[in-house]
Amino acid sequence: MNQNEEFDVKFNANCYNIYEFLNNHPGGTNYLRPYQEKEVTKPMKQYQHSKAAYYLLEEYRKGGRKIEENSDMEKLVDWDKPMLGQVTSLGNKYYEWVTSPVDRRLRLFGNPILENLTITPWYVVPIIWIPVIIYVTLIGVRKYIQITKDSSPTTIAFYFGEGVLLWTLIEYSLHRWVFHIEPTGKSKMMIYFHFTIHGLHHKVPFDSRRLVFPPFPAAILTFVIYQMLCPIFSESTIFLVLGGGLSGYVTYDMIHFYLHHGAPTEDSYLYHLKRYHNQHHFAQHESGFGISSMFWDKVFGTALKLRKLNIGIKW
């Protein structure tokens, strides 16, 4: 680490180099810059930092993590080994561990083939799914015209848009009732399930390789959702709805990646979404389930309230 990679702050008289955290800080770089080489104990209390924030801070402590009273839960696992084989041994401590974030890369499987199937660069999603969306939508347009004899672009766009809207509900439902189902007791299967589908993202929220949905499980999920929709929509509209739904999914995945690594400007839609998603990650795990939209959070009463800031955030 060279001199330009030093950004030291002091907390409770201990020194922390948070250089690697600057661009990931939920409060932006402009709130951190004035505190270089200064004490941050009082400001962190003033801005009501969460328990997760204090835990994450220990990642950057010079000399390594030294949480008082042996409360460092990272001692319970070996980060040099695949994590999936270890999480079930955490038992009742699993949920506290998985919601205590760290700034590391995580290996899920020991088998390199399985491991590579769980790692997805963001650009792979549009490369794979945009051609599928075009193909499915073209089939949908042809079937709709053949069956209904209606070639109105407005009507076709309506059913496509219906699929986009349906995706936002699926996104919310999956995130709230599937991804955030809390394992109870020491059920190994529930811990495996939770950690694999979403828990690992809350554990390592800055691992850019694990921010979008891998294509293989996404294809399986697409097939399952398609089978569920077939009894609901007619033969003339199902593929239009599916094309819209897949478009919504790709948009969601790209937004999710951007919310973690992008720098939206103040007062833009994505600026508010980034603040919203950061609050979900680091303060209120059981609220704020919408990612590409806050609409269903408002409908189901799980919306987060963001406090008003005197100065806008700059990431």
TrEMBL record:
It is a multi-pass membrane protein. It is found in: Endoplasmic reticulum membrane. The keyword Repeat does not apply. One of its GO terms (cellular component) is endoplasmic reticulum membrane. The keyword tRNA-binding does not apply. Its cofactor is Fe cation; Zn(2+). Binds 2 Zn(2+) ions per subunit that likely form a catalytic dimetal center. The chain crosses the membrane at residues 122-141, 211-229. Pathway: Sphingolipid metabolism; Lipid metabolism. Residues 12-63 form the Cytochrome b5 heme-binding domain. GO terms for biological process: fatty acid biosynthetic process. This is Fatty acid 2-hydroxylase. It comes from Phaedon cochleariae.
